[in-house]
Specification:
About 0% of the residues lie in helices and about 40% in strands. It contains no helices and 7 strands.
């Protein structure tokens, strides 16, 4: 499930590549309790919204899983189409939601000022955690 609105503050496109790491499933667990390791690559964003007239943003991504596991990419200087290609290992369940939020580093400390876009990915819609990822 993706969360994209018509607001100009949302990235036109955002690439988030998710790959499965381990092929082992403990069949004793209930389906909702199966936890799997995933390799998530934050690849790039394209056509981010330019919030200031004379300055380009310094975008970075905050990646969270179920609001708990948090990873952060490096901030890239002065670009509307950043290419991070950074990979993180996270633990997910079928009910997990992976959220990638894009912020401007220079405006991040000011409440609500640095937000550039967001995407939410429901793991169960893209990966069968119980059977190993097919």
């Amino acid at each position: 499930m993706t969360d994209e609105s018509a607001s100009p503050s949302v990235a036109t496109s955002f690439i988030l590549r998710i790959c499965q790491l381990n092929n082992e499933v403990n069949w004793e667990f209930e389906f909702s309790n199966v936890t799997r390791a995933l390799k998530v690559t934050v690849l790039a964003a394209d056509n981010l919204y330019k919030r200031e007239l004379f300055r380009l943003p310094d975008p970075f991504v905050v990646l969270t899983v179920d609001g708990a596991q948090t990873q952060t990419t490096k901030a890239l200087k002065r670009t509307l189409s950043p290419y991070w290609n950074e990979t993180f290992k996270v633990q997910v369940k079928p009910t997990s939601v992976i959220t990638a939020q894009v912020f401007d580093q220079r405006k991040f400390k000011k409440r609500g000022q640095g937000f550039l876009g967001v995407i939410n990915v429901q793991v169960s819609q893209h990966l069968n955690v119980q059977t190993g990822g097919d």
